[in-house]
């Protein structure tokens, strides 16, 4: 299977490594890519684990995220800019027959010796 974050690479050679071991993630961009792939694959446990403890969604929100991520068809990820701790991206998806995009400038940091998503800039 091709990796959702980059169809030119196999999932097993890309985000699967992060999904199996979050400590293998070496940069903010790699974590953001693995989170996009987790949305595509509805891997909500990984999304929670890769989210900073102070901004992590509650269990009720976790169920809502799972329902929503399964209801859309993820189309592609486009990384616009990346620094040591931020990643600006577009995540394209189809919902109710219309193409939409999530544009975000995300902030990442390390917590418990691994990269986590903290929030938006």
Topology:
Blueprint: E1 2-3, E2 6-10, H1 15-20, H2 28-41, H3 44-49, H4 59-71, E3 73-82, E4 86-95, E5 98-111, E6 114-120
Antiparallel strand pairs: 1-2, 3-4, 4-5, 5-6
Describe the 3D structure:
It is a single chain. The protein contains four helices and six strands. The chain has 121 residues and is α+β, with helices and mostly antiparallel strands. It has one domain: Roll (Nuclear Transport Factor 2, Chain: A), CATH 3.10.450.50. A hairpin with a 2-residue loop joins strand 4 and strand 5. It is globular. The model has no long low-confidence stretch (mean pLDDT 96).
Count of runs of 4 or more consecutive helical residues: 4
Sum up the overall morphology in one term. Answer: globular
CATH class: Alpha Beta
What number of structural domains do the residues give?
Answer: 1
Helix-strand string: EEHHHHEEEE
Spatially, the strands of the biggest sheet line up as 3-4-5-6
Give the rounded overall mean pLDDT.
96
Would you tell me which CATH topology applies?
Nuclear Transport Factor 2, Chain: A
User: Mind telling me which CATH architecture this is?
Assistant: Roll
Q: Which structural category do the helix and sheet elements fall into?
A: alpha+beta
